[in-house]
Amino acid sequence: MTGINDLNSDYQNQHHESLFEHLNGRIKSQDSMKQKCQKKNLPLTPYSALRENRDSIGIRIVCNFIDDIYTCINSLKQMSDIQIIKKKDYITNAKANGYRSYHLILAKTVEKLDVDGTLVFLWRVT
Length: 126
Known about the structure:
It is built from four helices and five strands. It is α+β, with helices and mostly antiparallel strands and 126 residues long. This is GTP pyrophosphokinase family protein.
């Protein structure tokens, strides 16, 4: 989340306003990951929990205005260590119940050992 906070700071320095108002993160609990694997009929392995489920780590970015959401997304696209894997635009295409949001699945390169013991790997964020 540091890189995204830095993105907000850089934006504030250039535009004298925040790109977003709040940034929260969470790591799914072991029990929650187990339930998700079972729901998707995946084996109960670290690989399934961390690679096949795409929400082991989640962040929420809250913007004041709808236009800020798209500015934020464009800024995320410019980050060299982040790749957008999938997007769901519930702002343009609101759900029937009126729910409006923008969901991204991102891949981010980090320098840590992953579940396979690989030094550099991608983790996914929604």
